[in-house]
């Protein structure tokens, strides 16, 4: 036992009653429990095994064997030990206890767990995404081939393993692999059998830093491209519908010779007013209108920026040689205009569209009579 006490491996000994009788320094270091606290306690309580509560007692009946157990440390961490046990016999050859020698395999256990998790992640990806995952050695020979993306291609998982890429595919199709074998990661978009695909070629280096293998990922973009096209078509349809709605909510009407009317309905914001300004100015030029009626009877409220736009619109109309007239201003809109301190002295405002139309027709007839009188006087 003196030799075992100095062993770099953890050593624990317990009797038929499971009480610990031996506990070396390596056990104290690995498990975080000093010998003076361990000796005299039940090993089943000190090192519980929830997955197999009767394990320590059953070892009394086994000649030898190995168990890998994970134990909680007092510092909140865990340690994994590979325990090799041997039955201790008394002078009559009957079981007197168990000697356990443990090796710390925490790093190995964690690496194994990490590897298992990575395998599960890889399996989840290749089973649920339209992806093909493959690998080749430094010579271009397939070492792995799998993935949901193989469905419908006529190629089975693992079918090309052991075959060389350069024998199966032409030079154009192996450009990415050749670059990766030279140590250059590659990401590109291409087509295969009429399908859009995205490719990754990832070089894997050995301990000397030389390329030892290449991992390839091929993603079928058919579904995403189709979804993208459908989304674009829907957005285009929505835009067309919104354009129709805007045109219906702000129609430009020619109500009299040389008179345009723009009845605005609903909520009027800055973006809508800017669009209306452009459409109305183009209509004035196209029809050579002399008057433009902006009817706000159907407008409950405007924001501060919109009120400024309306004044600017009237000034722009004047620059085109026409007269801009605002009709049907509601009290709430009037309050907004007043609160901004906007000067409407140069803008003709009337109570409603009827009054505005009457004003325009009267002005037009008056000018026509004046031109007629001038013509008679000249004769």
Describe this structure in words.
The structure is a single chain. This protein has 379 residues and is of the alpha+beta class. The chain has three domains: 2-110, 2-Layer Sandwich (Beta-Lactamase), CATH 3.30.450; 129-223, PAS domain (Beta-Lactamase, 2-Layer Sandwich), CATH 3.30.450.20; 250-373, STAS domain (Transcription Regulator spoIIAA, 2-Layer Sandwich). Helices cover 41% and strands 28% of the residues. The protein contains 13 helices and 15 strands. A five-stranded antiparallel beta sheet has the order 2-1-5-4-3. Strands 7-6-10-9-8 form a five-stranded antiparallel beta sheet, with helices on both faces. The chain is elongated and about 145 Å long. The mean pLDDT is 85.
Write the layout of secondary structure elements.
Blueprint: H1 2-5, E1 10-15, E2 20-23, H2 25-31, H3 35-38, H4 43-46, H5 55-58, E3 64-72, E4 78-89, E5 95-104, H6 106-128, E6 131-137, E7 142-146, H7 165-168, H8 175-181, E8 186-192, E9 195-205, E10 211-220, H9 222-249, E11 253-256, E12 259-265, H10 270-287, E13 291-298, H11 304-319, E14 323-327, H12 331-340, E15 348-350, H13 353-378
Parallel strand pairs: 12-13, 13-14, 14-15
Antiparallel strand pairs: 1-2, 1-5, 3-4, 4-5, 6-7, 6-10, 8-9, 9-10, 11-12
Helix pairs in contact: 10-11
The CATH topology of the largest domain: Transcription Regulator spoIIAA
Radius of gyration over all CA atoms, rounded: 44 Å
Portion in strands: 25-35%
Strand tally = 15
Query: Total number of helical segments?
Result: 13
Tell me the major beta sheet. 5 strands, antiparallel
CATH top-level class of the largest domain: Alpha Beta
């Amino acid at each position: 036992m003196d030799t075992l006490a100095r062993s770099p491996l953890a050593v624990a000994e317990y009797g038929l009653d499971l009480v610990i009788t031996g506990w070396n320094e390596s056990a104290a270091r690995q498990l975080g429990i000093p010998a003076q606290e361990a000796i005299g306690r039940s090993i089943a309580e000190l090192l519980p095994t929830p997955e197999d509560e009767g394990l320590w007692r059953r070892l009394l009946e086994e000649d030898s064997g190995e168990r890998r157990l994970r134990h909680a440390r007092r510092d909140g961490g865990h340690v994994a030990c590979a325990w090799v046990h041997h039955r201790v016999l008394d002078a009559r050859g009957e079981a007197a206890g168990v000697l356990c020698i443990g090796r710390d395999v925490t790093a190995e256990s964690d690496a194994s767990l990490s590897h298992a998790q990575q395998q599960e992640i890889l399996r989840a990806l290749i089973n649920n995404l339209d992806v093909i995952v493959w690998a080749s050695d430094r010579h271009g020979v397939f070492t792995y081939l799998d993935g949901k993306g193989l469905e419908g291609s006529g190629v089975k998982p693992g079918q090309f393993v052991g075959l060389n890429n350069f024998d199966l595919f032409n030079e154009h199709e192996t450009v990415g692999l050749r670059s990766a074998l030279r140590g250059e990661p590659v990401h590109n978009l291409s087509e295969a059998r009429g399908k859009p695909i995205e490719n990754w070629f990832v070089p894997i280096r050995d301990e000397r830093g030389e390329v030892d293998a290449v991992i390839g990922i091929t993603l079928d973009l058919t579904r995403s491209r189709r979804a993208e096209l459908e989304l674009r078509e829907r957005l285009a349809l929505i835009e067309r519908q919104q354009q129709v709605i805007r045109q219906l909510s702000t129609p430009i009407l020619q109500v009299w010779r040389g008179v345009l009317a723009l009845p605005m309905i609903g909520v009027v914001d800055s973006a809508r007013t800017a669009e209306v300004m452009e459409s109305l100015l183009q209509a004035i030029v196209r029809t050579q209108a002399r008057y433009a009626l902006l009817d706000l009877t159907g407008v409950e409220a405007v924001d501060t920026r919109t009120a400024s736009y309306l004044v600017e619109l009237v000034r722009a109309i004047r620059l085109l040689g026409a007269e801009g007239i605002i009709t049907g201003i509601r009290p709430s809109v009037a309050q907004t205009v007043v609160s901004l301190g906007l000067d409407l002295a140069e803008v003709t405002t009337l109570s409603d569209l009827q009054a505005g139309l009457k004003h325009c027709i009267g002005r037009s007839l008056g000018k026509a009579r004046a031109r007629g009188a001038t013509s008679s006087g000249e004769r």
